[in-house]
Design a protein that fits this description.
Strand order of the largest sheet: 1-2
Helix content: 55-70%
Order of helices and strands: HHHHHEE
Number of helices: 5
Largest sheet: 2 strands, antiparallel
Shape: elongated
Structural class: mainly alpha
Number of strands: 2
Radius of gyration: 21 Å
Length: 157
């Protein structure tokens, strides 16, 4: 897969499907999900909230544009799967119980890393323009995560 955009959509679609499928039992209050939540020591009234938040997060990473919303959605999904993994490990659950949380952690992390490697014009390139509308010229292009120093400041003596 040489096209980073294709790689992003494949990885992110699989991750979003995984998160949506794990959110359905939470939102519906399926007895199995309630039993796991009680076993972990959490109040069951949090279950629909977490399921709804997981659903919104999965949808947000699929919506084009809105980079800041995607960043927050990735953070929320990462907190969700990290918390689930930590909770299962804390109560001493066997590997079979915490494997889905570990898979979710890998999927969310992988999707985020692929997202961060996209050129910003596909997830948004920042083009800095100088001048008025009729005399505008491009003064720089910056990829996501790059730092830029001001060019109009003289450093030193």
């Amino acid at each position: 897969m040489k096209n980073p955009k294709t790689r992003y959509w494949i990885v992110t679609s699989l991750m979003a499907a995984f998160m949506l499928l794990s959110a359905i039992p939470d939102v519906l209050g399926i007895p199995g999900a309630v039993a796991v939540f009680r076993h972990l020591g959490y109040p069951t009234y949090l279950l629909p909230f977490l399921g709804t938040a997981k659903t919104f997060g999965a949808v947000a990473v699929l919506v084009p544009r809105f980079q800041r919303l995607k960043e927050w959605a990735f953070a929320g999904l990462l907190f969700d799967v990290t918390g689930a993994l930590y909770s299962h490990l804390s109560v001493g659950d066997p590997v079979s119980a915490w494997t889905p949380a570990a898979i979710g952690l890998v999927m969310v992390s992988g999707s985020y890393l692929v997202y961060r490697r996209l050129p910003m014009d596909q997830g948004g390139t920042h083009v800095y323009v100088s001048g008025s509308d009729e005399g505008a010229r491009t003064v720089g292009i910056r990829r996501r995560g790059e730092r830029s120093e001001p060019t109009n400041i003289v450093w030193g003596n």
